């Protein structure tokens, strides 16, 4: 393999682990990268029950499993990084990102994630749970599933965990390493094990970006 080919393979690995780079590729890279992604995504469609919208990036190292009845729906502009584990039913809204080694299992009731939400490296979202009755081994306990709903514009930090039955409101932040066992209000910042509200995004300083939120604006 010549040096140019080696560089392209290295670039593919870079994109797999840092998929946000895909959306700002220079024209000389975009042509081959889009062709590569068409192949990756078509193979996934051929093998699993998935619905992939336009403009997505899916690392070939991601592990996506979607049996009939456990469909995975990937909205436009989503990115799924290397070593992500994704088991349907899962629905990703537009421009959702799943970073490396995130793990999502929809159980029976499913996971729904709103537009623009970011799931950081190593986060775990499980829409099922085991019983804990003392009269039988854990391996024989019944499994329940209530489902997970993650709102729009949410940031789930690295290595955070979200348990079955939880709803995380729009614009919320789940801190690194937090374990969320109850619903999170819109705009809340939660941290800790178990997670509790430690702040409100609306009280943070403005970023200065055009059209940004001002304290006093309605939620």
From TrEMBL:
* SUPFAM superfamilies from the UniProt entry: Trimeric LpxA-like enzymes
On whether Transferase is a keyword of this UniProt record, the answer is yes
GO terms (molecular function) for this protein are:
O-acyltransferase activity
Q: Which InterPro entries match?
A: Hexapep, Hexapep_transf_CS, Hexapeptide_acetyltransf, Trimer_LpxA-like_sf
Question: What is the residue range of the signal peptide feature?
Answer: none
Question: Which Pfam families does this entry report, sorted A to Z?
Answer: Hexapep_2
Tagged with keyword Cell wall biogenesis/degradation: no
Q: Provide GO CC annotations from the record.
A: cytosol
The alphabetized UniProt keywords are: Acyltransferase, Repeat, Transferase
Q: Which family does it belong to?
A: Belongs to the transferase hexapeptide repeat family.
Protein's UniProt name: Putative acetyltransferase
């Amino acid at each position: 393999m010549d040096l140019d080919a080696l560089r392209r393979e290295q670039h593919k690995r870079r994109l797999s682990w840092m998929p946000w780079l895909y959306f700002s590729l220079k024209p000389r890279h975009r042509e081959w990268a889009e062709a590569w992604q068409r192949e990756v995504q078509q193979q996934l469609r051929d093998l699993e029950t998935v619905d992939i919208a336009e403009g997505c990036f899916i690392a070939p190292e991601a592990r996506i499993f979607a049996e009939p009845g456990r469909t995975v729906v990937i909205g436009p502009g989503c990115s799924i990084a290397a070593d992500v584990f994704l088991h349907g039913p899962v629905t990703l809204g537009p421009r959702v990102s799943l970073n490396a080694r995130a793990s999502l299992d929809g159980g029976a009731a499913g996971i729904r994630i709103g537009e623009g939400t970011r799931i950081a490296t190593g986060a775990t979202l499980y829409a099922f749970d085991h019983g804990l009755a003392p009269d039988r081994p854990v391996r024989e306990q019944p499994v329940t599933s209530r489902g997970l709903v993650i709102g729009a514009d949410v940031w789930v930090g690295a290595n955070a965990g979200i348990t079955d039955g939880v709803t995380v409101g729009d614009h919320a932040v789940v801190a690194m390493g937090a374990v969320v066992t109850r619903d999170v209000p819109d705009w809340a910042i939660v941290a800790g094990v178990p997670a509790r509200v430690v702040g409100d995004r609306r009280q943070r300083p403005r970023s200065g970006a055009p059209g940004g939120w001002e304290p006093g604006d309605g939620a």
